[in-house]
Amino acid sequence: MARPNYQRIADTLRQRIVQGNYASDERLPSRQALADEFGVGPRVAADAVQQLVAEGYVVARTGSGTYVRAKPPVRRLTRSWYRESRGGSPFRADMAAQAVRGGWESASEPVPAPEIIADRLAIEPDSQVMRTSYTFTGDGEPVMLSTSYEPLEVTRGTSVVLPEDGPHAGRGVVERMREIGQHIVHAGEIVSARPVDDEEADRLRLSRGAVVMVVQRTYYTDSRPIETADIIVPPDRYELAYTIPVDQEQGYSDQS
């Protein structure tokens, strides 16, 4: 089936924006100019521009026109064992280092562990875990999402059963688990990329079809996995920087 005329025009304009033919904050040609260029009516040209507005590539300014959305500065999220181990919130420390006010919203609930999460935590499928969903913000704007899982067979009845409630709320996983005698000795991360889903796009204020980085992170004590999480990061806003401790006698450590 042929794509509607306005979608073909939107595809061309989108490509121009991505390739830099239109600079950040540059005004797009008027609807009439686009209609003349593509040999369509002004209504079709307007529909093409509205498509780009819906996708987040451009913004409409009343009485002025439509402009390429300015790209936010790319900031850094540090993946560091030192930062995880020293206490407090590693995310908030990252934001403070870049003069950004970091914060988050969260919601926790006990759920049966999905099979993939049970495998990562080395527990039986459908075992109870505490699932916590986060939306992290920098200066009030969404930065990244995270969904973490902690086995209730370890945390139930303790002061850390709710990650964002109680006397240790807002602390990192390493510090919280230490309070109940669970000493995390290393963490592993797998980084991949995929298209954002609709719910994530809404929460992160991204265009449909945008690509996000996915960090699959798991913390381990000497004897078991103790927490696992999926972290969603928009790569046009944030980059990941890894600091890897090195043991001079035994080579590098995987405690990143």
UniProtKB/TrEMBL annotation:
Top-level taxon of origin: Bacteria
Signal sequence annotation: none
InterPro entries found in the cross-reference section: Bact_HTH_transcr_reg, Chorismate_lyase_/UTRA_dom_sf, Tscrpt_reg_HTH_GntR, UTRA, WH-like_DNA-bd_sf, WH_DNA-bd_sf
Residue ranges annotated for the HTH gntR-type domain, each copy included: 3-71
A GO BP entry: negative regulation of DNA-templated transcription
An MF annotation (GO) of this entry: DNA binding
Record key words, sorted: DNA-binding, Transcription, Transcription regulation
Protein name in the entry: Putative HTH-type transcriptional regulator YurK
